[in-house]
């Protein structure tokens, strides 16, 4: 690679075959994302690039990677987990990107598309952003599970509830979510044979008729401070089991999300943050794109 002298030291010049790549770092309640905007410049994101970017010591670090693409609505969103695997849904990333696109366009309501389907997003006021994550998937084959069964109480110790929100979820209602060794427990349940595509794992306890405390282990990532789709799945599971109503606050390690299971889908509302923008250098990207 060629170099150029700059301020007394040699700075590598960008490799023309692998140009620098802008990115954004965002988070929703500490659930953090690297976001690539591919609307003007298509970006292929192989698993190796996602893995390199997810490394919090040698890359940037994220819970999920999100790519903004042109789509039938205002934009199409694509998601990858920290292990490079694909995910059809990521609620907090969707809210973060929706807020970014609203600021860019001046719109207060957007129609986004994902592999989950079409999602409405709106400015909820006071700096909050809402996204309709769509109707929950409650049948065993929609989630999916390995065989036909009642999704309200699975034949797993603890009798968890299975829910699909474009990705699979397994929600355990416990006496004290804080007392669970989530690193050990979540890792084991993620790979349970009843879930052929692995699963996100939640442990939750009831704080009141409209309030839940929840911790989450995300499929392909691990423990995260928050998760939008997991919050939606937990709210749906609690309502189905008669533990709460259909509108609840979910208290997460990173803050509180409001989840409202309505006739048109599961709406989630909370804050977002665009922390910084940066550039991935050609030397970092070499061999990854």
Span between N and C termini?
A: 17 Å
Number of separate strands: 19
Which architecture of the largest domain per CATH? Roll
Mean pLDDT: 93
CATH hierarchy class name of the largest domain? Alpha Beta
Rg from alpha-carbon coordinates: 20 Å
Shape: globular
Please indicate the count of domains.
2
Helix percentage range: 10-25%
- Enter the CATH topology name of the largest domain: Diaminopimelate Epimerase, Chain A, domain 1
What amount of the residues lies in strands? 35-45%
Give the topology:
Blueprint lengths: L2 E4 L2 E4 L8 E8 L2 E7 L9 H8 L9 E6 L5 E7 L4 E2 L3 H15 L3 E6 L2 E9 L2 E5 L28 E4 L3 E6 L8 H9 L9 E9 L2 E8 L3 E3 L3 H13 L6 E6 L2 E8 L2 E7 L1 E8 L1 H4 L4
Parallel strand pairs: 4-5, 6-8, 12-13, 14-16
Antiparallel strand pairs: 1-2, 3-4, 3-19, 5-6, 6-7, 8-9, 9-10, 10-18, 11-12, 13-14, 14-15, 16-17, 17-18
Description:
By secondary structure, the protein is α+β, with helices and mostly antiparallel strands. It has 2 domains: 3-132 and 273-285, Diaminopimelate Epimerase, Chain A, domain 1, CATH 3.10.310.10; 161-263, Diaminopimelate Epimerase, Chain A, domain 1, CATH 3.10.310.10. The chain has helices at 47-54, 91-105, 182-190, 228-240, 282-285; strands at residues 3-6, 9-12, 21-28, 31-37, 64-69, 75-81, 86-87, 109-114, 117-125, 128-132, 161-164, 168-173, 200-208, 211-218, 222-224, 247-252, 255-262, 265-271, 273-280. The strands form 2 sheets. It has a 17-stranded mixed β-sheet that branches. It has a two-stranded antiparallel ribbon with strand order 1-2. The longest helix is centred in the middle third of the chain and has 15 residues, at 91-105. The protein starts with a strand and ends with a helix. The model is unreliable at 1-16 (pLDDT under 50).
